[in-house]
Design a protein that fits this description.
The protein is globular and about 30 Å long. It is built from two helices and four strands, in the order αβββαβ. Strands 1-2 form a two-stranded antiparallel sheet. A two-stranded antiparallel sheet has the order 3-4. The chain is α+β, with helices and mostly antiparallel strands and about 100 residues long. Strand 1 and strand 2 form a beta hairpin.
């Protein structure tokens, strides 16, 4: 989207230096609850990739199999600080064309 709308600046993480320099972020909900986030992987993938866009690798809250899978296909990866963290994912288009 134009002007970095809809997580458009997520594509900045495709630059190794940017990924290395931006290890954390924050999420603020509409009721002003703040969540601290740790950025541990960046991927370029197809929207139909079932290993990325489904939770089939997560069982009983154990995210380690999903993290292992992400490590395999990530453009950049660093080990998360927790053994089996909760995972929050942002996704955006990375194309020369926009919908705006």
């Amino acid at each position: 989207m134009d002007n970095y709308g809809m997580f458009g600046d997520v594509t900045e993480f495709l630059d190794q230096k940017y990924f290395d320099e931006h290890k954390t972020g924050s999420l603020l909900t509409k009721d002003f609850k703040k969540y601290d986030l740790e950025v541990f992987a960046v991927l370029q993938t197809d929207t139909m990739d079932p290993d990325v866009y489904s939770m089939c690798l997560v069982s009983d809250g154990n995210t380690r199999p999903l993290i292992d899978s992400l490590r395999e296909c990530a453009k950049y990866f660093r080990e998360p600080s927790e053994e089996s963290p909760k995972i929050f994912s942002l996704s955006t288009c990375n194309s020369a064309e926009t919908d705006g």
